[in-house]
Amino acid sequence: PRDEEWKRYIHWDPSPKKYTRNLMFSNEFMDVILMCWPAGCKSSIHDHDESSCWAYCVEGEVKEIQYHVPKYDSTIETGNAIGRCTALREKCVSTLRAGDCAYVRNDIG
To answer: Rounded CA gap, 47 and 96, in Å?
Structure first.
């Protein structure tokens, strides 16, 4: 995209540790969100449930670490944090640099 198409949507959280999600466009089929990540900022480990997205890096770079789903012992009940699970193991690490595009969906990583 051209600079004038996205730069006006840049909004930063006052905290240097938080990223922002800035809505650029929305309709019944999709949302276009500009995410602004301060240098060194991290998100918690999460999945994208039943959603998918295209990610395009307009400036800088973003590092993504994917993990294997841990195995749970038999004492974990849905919605209750009792029991234990195995340690997280890295599945892959990828870096998105300015101009790179990636498709994100849980079942493909």
So the answer is: 18
Partner residues linked to 103 by β-bridges: 54
Q: Give the pLDDT of the chain (109 residues) as one tens digit per residue.
A: 888 999 999 999 988 889 999 999 999 999 999 999 999 899 888 887 778 889 999 999 999 998 888 877 655 566 666 667 788 899 999 999 999 999 888 776 5
For 42-100, the DSSP string reads ---S---TT-EEEEE--SSEEEEEEEPPPPBPTT-BTTB--S-BPPP-EEEEEEEETT-
SS in 3 state form for 25-41? EECCCCEEEEEECCCCC
Distances (CA, A) of 38 to 12, 19, 42, 48: 8, 6, 9, 22
